[in-house]
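To: structure desk
From: M.T.
Subject: fold request, one chain
Message: Could you run this one when you get a chance? Sequence is below, nothing fancy, just the single chain.
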Amino acid sequence: MKRVMVEVKRVGIVGAGTMGRGIAQVTAEAGYETLIYDVKSEAVADALNTIKKMMERAVEKGAKTQVEAEAVLKRVKPCNSLEELAHGDVDLVIEAVFEDAEVKKQVFQELDKHCKAECILASNTSSISITLLASYTKRPEKVI
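Reply: Done. Structure tokens follow.
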């Protein structure tokens, strides 16, 4: 099998709960444009607010400058649908929905259908087999 290196520039996060918002913050702090989606739009709003508060604390503590914090916040963008996230030219999508195999199956099938072929699909699961999740896609070799 030929290996192809994918340069990750834009990351999508599916799920804006505690884990999803934390992952979104980390990817944005690492310099990646980050799109975040949740079926509950209020969860995305809460996630953006939490990330803003974390950046404010980082500035207060001297861990970040105001300019750095603002740059992080500009890199996190909300999405209104999985399709919008997938069509956002993402190179990596990290699924962080709750631990329900059926929900994850639907998410992976939708992402597989709408994301570009080179996109890597990742899961933040703690108990569901990655092999099982990969089997829901036509790109199991790109599921981590």
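Reply (cont.): Strands lie at 10-14, 33-37, 76-78, 92-95, 120-123. Let me know if you need anything else for the meeting.
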